[in-house]
Amino acid sequence: MSRVCAVSGKKALSGNKRSHSMHASRRKWNVNLQKVKVMVDGKPQRIRISARALKTLKAQQKNG
């Protein structure tokens, strides 16, 4: 399974890890993925969704 959000399409970012002496080595910032049951076409499905997208969906559900 890849680390990609099923709703927003967010994926891991990459960059440099910097030591105290400013030496650079590559690192990754992974997406905060959560496994959630969501209704898709009237059927419950388990998908991996980012925490930010989940928060947005819950807010939309609450507001109507």
Sum this structure up briefly.
The chain has 64 residues and is an alpha+beta fold.
What does this structure look like?
Keywords: Ribonucleoprotein, Ribosomal protein. Belongs to the bacterial ribosomal protein bL28 family. Residues 1-25 are annotated as: Disordered. Helix content is 20%, strand content 44%. With 64 residues, it is of the alpha+beta class. The strands form two sheets. It has a two-stranded antiparallel ribbon.
The largest sheet, given as strand count, sense and whether it forms a barrel, is: 2 strands, antiparallel
Topology, number of strands: 4
Can you identify the CATH superfamily? Ribosomal protein L28/L24
Terminus-to-terminus distance: 32 Å
H/E order of the elements?
EEEEH
Q: What's the number of helices?
A: 1
Question: So, CATH architecture?
Answer: Roll
Runs in which pLDDT lies below 50 for 5 or more consecutive residues are none
> In terms of structural class, how would the helical and strand content be classed?
alpha+beta
- The rough form would be described as elongated
How are the strands ordered across the major sheet? 1-2
User: What is Rg?
Assistant: 16 Å
Oligomer: single chain
Strand content: 35-45%
- Whole-number total of structural domains: 1
What's the level 1 CATH class?
Answer: Mainly Beta
CATH topology: Ribosomal Protein L24e, Chain: T
Helix content: 10-25%
Mean pLDDT: 94
